[in-house]
Amino acid sequence: MERNTEPLTQERLNVLSQSLARRDPVLRKVRKTLGPPPLWKRPASFATFVRIILEQQVSLASAKSTFDKTKQACGGLVTAERLNLLNPETLRQLGYSRQKSRYSLALAEDVLAKRFVIGRLRSLGDDEVREQITQRLGLGNWSADIYLLMSLCRPDIFPVGDLALVNGLSELDQTEYETTEAILERAERWRPHRAVASRMIWQAYLANRKKTIP
Predict the structure, then answer these.
(1) In Å, how far are 56, 64, 68, 88, 109 from 94, measured between CA atoms?
(2) Which residues contact 173 (CB under 8 A, 6 or more apart)?
(3) d(CA 122, CA 198)
(4) Counting Cβ atoms within 10 Å, is residue 192 exposed (0-12), middle (13-18) or buried (19+)?
(5) For residue 18, what is the enclosing H or E element?
(6) pTM of the complete model beyond 0.85
(7) Is 105 in contact with 88 (CB distance < 8 Å)?
(8) Minimal CA–CA distance to 141: which of 168, 193, 180?
């Protein structure tokens, strides 16, 4: 299977978004109005996985608030070693749900036991990265997609489980997509650069609400 692991840069994003705009009238309108999308990026680190766990089924702002409290409790740096020193009750006081506390501590244990080596993910193909991530407790395909797209900056990731992406696409197309299959079919025309289209959809979604990604 062909690997497309070369990460996106802002320069590539500018060029590829222009290419998608020529092929898709909806994305053409986004780019004409808003320009190329930003290269939203997160560190390829344990801390990012904790933040992704916190973002599950809550607003980004709420997750960031809890993450910032976690960072403070960890002495300014969220690592597996430091998080592992916090007990579930402490995490609950910081704003974690019972499940998210369990997921985060299990992830820390996996990292410390070297069952999950985050640094190796960069050299793996998309499917291999997804397999490694989804083997972790509480981390599913959405979590894998966000890490692949935001931390590894892979070019062909389409996080179909992301509500903002789905709503943003529905708004742009003025269509209610009733199934995941219908959304994926719509995204097929953007291969092998679906991550670029994803960023353009998020860009429009946030602009319509006058928001930025925290």
Answers:
(1) 16, 12, 9, 10, 20
(2) 26, 186
(3) 21
(4) exposed
(5) helix 10-23
(6) yes
(7) yes
(8) 180
Q: What is the largest CA-CA distance in the chain?
A: 53
Q: Give buried/exposed letters for 37-60 (b at 16+ CB in 10 A, else e).
A: bebebbebbbbbbbbbbbbbeeee
Strand, helix or coil at 6? coil
The three-point CA angle 72-150-175 to 5° equals 120
Taking 90 as the threshold, does the pLDDT of residue 214 lie above it? no
Mean pLDDT of the chain: 95
N-to-C CA span, the chain: 36
CB atoms within 10 A of CB 14: 15
Give residue-wise pLDDT tens across range 55-83.
999 999 999 999 999 999 999 999 999 99
Task: Output DSSP code: residue 100.
Answer: H
Residue 87: φ, ψ to 5°: -90, 165
Cα gap 185→122, rounded to integer Å: 28
DSSP string, 148-162: IIIIS--TT---TT-
If DSSP states are collapsed to H, E and C, what string results for 21-40?
A: HHHCHHHHHHHHHHCCCCCC
* Cα distance between residue 149 and residue 5, in whole Å: 11
